[in-house]
């Protein structure tokens, strides 16, 4: 059995209408990230942080999974040993049919209490006055990993990278750590490496590179793996 670890980034959801960090004029460019994507920013101005993530949540909920999401779900359903890890905070992989997704940066559809650590399904819009259903503290925040915080499930991801035969990075810039180091980590354990991206990262990092939009390149690669 070939064990595959797939890491997806913003490029997988871009064609569903969800922008990346680098989109000119996109949602991210209209905010100071130190104010909306850090624990300190949340402490200073929780209303601004909720405004930002309410907009992102609405975008995600109104978006639909695309052909890349569906193709990866088809691969996962057809083959044992496929681990799907995403940097994305949307739920398009799940809505596209994926049965298990490791969200290393959290999920926009989940809420977290900064006081007691309780987690629950987030409403479409969150507000600073919202009380935690567990402890009643008015310290609710999106269940998102912010800059300066440790990504989720790192031990589980490390175990999968150590055991995989093929590592595939799809739609990710390869510039944000720790995810940027996954390719070297997998290769160090002897895995083959593949990048599928509109704009490939630095030359020589992957054994093989497939260029193209995710909605075209990913289904074609999945068909290749599944034999047509």
UniProtKB/TrEMBL annotation:
Query: Which of this chain's residues are annotated to bind substrate?
Result: 53, 56
Q: Where along the chain is the active site annotated?
A: 105 (proton acceptor)
At which positions is Zn(2+) bound? 113, 116, 132, 135
Q: Does the keyword Zinc apply?
A: yes
User: Which residues are involved in binding NAD(+)?
Assistant: 9-28, 87-90, 171-173, 214
| Keyword set, alphabetical order | Cytoplasm, Metal-binding, NAD, Transferase, Zinc
- The domain of life is Bacteria
Q: What's the record's note on cofactor binding?
A: Binds 1 zinc ion per subunit.
CDD domains named in the record:
SIRT5_Af1_CobB (cd01412)
Cofactor(s) required for function per UniProt? Zn(2+)
Q: Which subcellular locations apply to this protein?
A: Cytoplasm
Q: What is the role of the protein in this entry?
A: NAD-dependent lysine deacetylase and desuccinylase that specifically removes acetyl and succinyl groups on target proteins. Modulates the activities of several proteins which are inactive in their acylated form.
Q: What is known of its domains?
A: 2 residues (Tyr-53 and Arg-56) present in a large hydrophobic pocket are probably involved in substrate specificity. They are important for desuccinylation activity, but dispensable for deacetylation activity.
Q: Which family does it belong to?
A: Belongs to the sirtuin family. Class III subfamily.
Q: This chain belongs to which protein, by name? A: NAD-dependent protein deacylase
């Amino acid at each position: 059995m070939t064990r595959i670890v797939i890491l997806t980034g913003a490029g997988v959801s871009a064609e569903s209408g969800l922008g990346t960090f680098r989109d000119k004029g996109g949602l991210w460019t209209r905010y100071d990230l130190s104010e909306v994507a850090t624990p300190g920013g949340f402490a200073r101005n929780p209303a601004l942080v909720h405004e930002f993530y309410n907009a992102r949540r609405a975008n995600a909920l109104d978006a639909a999974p695309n052909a890349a999401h569906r193709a990866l779900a088809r691969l996962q359903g057809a083959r044992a040993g496929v681990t799907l890890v995403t940097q994305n905070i949307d739920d398009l992989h799940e809505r596209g049919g994926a049965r298990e997704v490791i969200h290393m940066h959290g999920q926009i559809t989940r809420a977290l209490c900064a006081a007691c650590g309780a987690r629950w399904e987030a409403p479409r819009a969150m507000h600073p006055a919202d009380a935690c259903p567990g402890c009643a503290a008015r310290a609710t925040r999106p269940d998102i990993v912010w800059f300066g915080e440790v990504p989720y499930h790192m031990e589980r991801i490390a175990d999968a990278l150590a055991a995989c035969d093929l590592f595939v990075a799809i739609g990710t810039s390869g510039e944000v750590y720790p995810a940027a180091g996954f390719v070297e980590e997998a290769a160090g354990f002897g895995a083959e490496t593949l990048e599928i991206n509109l704009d490939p990262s630095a030359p020589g990092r992957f054994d093989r590179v497939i260029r193209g939009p995710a909605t075209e390149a990913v289904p074609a690669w999945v068909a290749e793996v599944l034999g047509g």
